[in-house]
Each structure stands twice: as structure tokens, then as C-alpha cells.
Amino acid sequence: MMNLKSTIKKVNSLLLKKYGIPHRNEKIPNSLDILIGTILSQNTNDKNSYKAYTDLKKKYPQWDDVEKLTASQIEKIINVAGLGKQKSNAIKKALTYLKNEKGELSLNYLKKLKDDEILTELTQLEGVGLKTASCVLLFALRRNSCPVDTHVNRTLNRIGIANSSNPEKTFKLVNSQMPEGIAHQFHTNLIRLGREICKPTNPNCTICPLKQICLFEDKKYDRLSDYKVNDFLLLDSIT
């Protein structure tokens, strides 16, 4: 287990050299905002989820107003994010649960709970999995929790830190050994790596900051990039 923690530290160090420390707003976002925003982000791109979220907040600035809507009314507003019926039901049920069971539309009560208790509390809600719940932990509650989405799961498996196609299993493994205080930078930089370099197909392993330690067997190298300038001059002279 100590090897896993050491590997996470090494990967994080190499990613920091490549990307630096990710920006983090000083103002801590509202937990309920993060929960709803992450529900909308499921299985879509940032552009569409952001539009759905801003459209919803522009029309109904307070979550109390959204809670009064039917799921169908919510669906019409957030449809650009895809999976409209599923996401609108999740949002409606989460808000109604908070209103009826907690007496207010707020997740402030989570601050008193431990990480595992928060994950259990949030994942009982329809449409809220470990990834969504852990985003609340990391971004709103500033806990040392690393959400695992498709990008993070792919990169962790290729690197050799994890060995599972199931993001939830990967989440439990990695977070059981996450060094204190690095989850945000580790998570954020891994996502950037997965989007820019370690893509699902044709990863650009040549420029990957982790290529020396990565265990991915099907590495893709750009052979031309291995040539020096003088090699190109030589090639030019003989063609």
C-alpha cells in the first residue's frame, strides 16, 4: 500500500512540473450549487453543462424556486445538457429531499460529517454517484478527495495505479491511499492530461510527462519528434 501512495506522489510531482498548481478560487462555492452543477455535467461536455446550469439559474436564481417546479419544467430548461429526464428527476428529488428531510435547501449540514458519511448521505440520492458526491467533497467542502471520471479512470489505469474499468472501484482504491493535501491538484491535472495528451484513442505519449513511469503497453510515439534538427537537414540533403 505504501508503494501506491508513493506512486501517487510521484505522478503528482511530474504533473506539477508539466502543468503547475491548478488555480483554485479563494471563495468557496456553495455545496448545493456544486451538486446540481455536477449532476448536469454527467455524460456531456463542459459547454453544454455550463449553459444548462446558467440557463436554470438565470430563470430561477434561488433553489427554492426550482424546487417548486415539476421535473418536466426543469427538463425543458436543462435539456441542452442531455439526459434531460434523468437529470431533471435527480435535481427535483434532491431538492425535495432537502426541503422535506432537512428543512432547508442547503447542504451545510454535511460540514459536520466525515468524508465517508458524506459520500453515503449523497449517494442515497437518485442520480448521485460517487463521482458527483466526491466533487462536492473536493470543490465545495475542500476535503482531500479525488473524484474519478472517465478521464481520470483511463489515465490511472494506463499509468498502472489502478486496474479496473469501474471508476467507483478506482475511486475507492486511490482515495484510500491519497496523500494529504494533494487531491485537488492531482485530480485537476489528471483531467487536463486526459484531455490534452492521454486521449481515449491516439494518445500523444511522446510529450507525456509520465512516459517514463507509465505502464501503458500500447504507447503511441510520434517517431518524427525523435529526430533532431540535424537529422532533418541530413534527410533533406539525400532526397
Describe the structure in your own words.
The protein is mainly alpha-helical and 239 residues long. The chain has a domain at 31-140: Hypothetical protein, domain 2 (Endonuclease III, domain 1, Orthogonal Bundle). It is built from twelve helices and no strands. Helix 2 (31-41) packs across helix 3 (46-59).
At a glance:
The protein is 58% helix and 0% strand.
Features:
239 residues, mainly alpha, Endonuclease III, domain 1, disordered C terminus
Helix content: 55-70%
Question: Outline, from the CA principal axes?
Answer: globular
CATH class of the domain at 31-140: Mainly Alpha
Radius of gyration: 21 Å
CATH domain topology of the domain at 31-140: Endonuclease III, domain 1
Question: Between the first and last Cα atoms, what is the distance in angstroms?
Answer: 55 Å
For the record, the CATH architecture of the domain at 31-140 stands as: Orthogonal Bundle
Mean residue pLDDT: 90
The CATH H-level superfamily of the domain at 31-140 is Hypothetical protein, domain 2
Stretches where pLDDT is under 50 for at least 5 consecutive residues are 223-239
Percentage of β-strand residues:
under 5%
